[in-house]
Amino acid sequence: MQNIMESNTTNSAANEGKMAMSQPRIMLHLEGLAVLVGLIALYANISGDWLLFIVLLFVPDISMVGYLANKSVGATVYNIGHFVGLPLALAGIGIAMNQSMPVAIALIWMAHIALDRAVGYGFKYPTDFKATHMHRA
Questions:
Q1: Structure confidence by residue, pLDDT tens digits, 90-110
Q2: Residue 137 forms part of a structural domain
Q3: Hey, what's the torsion of the CAs at 33, 38, 86, 63, to 10 degrees?
Q4: Greater pLDDT, 88 or 130
Q5: How many structural domains is the chain composed of?
Q6: Other Cβ atoms closer than 10 A to 103
Q7: Residue 54 sits in which domain range?
Q8: Which has the closest alpha carbon to 32: 116, 133, 109, 108?
Q9: Is residue 84 within 8 Å of residue 113, measured between CB atoms?
């Protein structure tokens, strides 16, 4: 009986490795890429400053500073910085106030999040930096 259980455990681990790029995971990557392309098109449509885009694109990664405290704080701060609701709210405020800068910043922020999703980064679990909603480490 134990050999059967060990065999099943081994097979599960082998299957998990084979399923690393399962259909849902591939779709999440493609979705991130599609959103990134759409956001870049929107940014071009508002005639955004491309130097600003390049300078601000990786600013949300400053949220990794939370990991200096511990994994739990790090995951929370990182996830807040990579939550699409915040830049969407910023874009809404910019639109409501008829101000283009908040909209431009929001599009750049969302482009960063989409880029992260396209390459496989997601919301962090407090157990490990590499454990995300897109890939459990």
A1: 999 999 999 999 999 999 999
A2: no
A3: 40
A4: 88
A5: 1
A6: 22
A7: 23-130
A8: 116
A9: yes
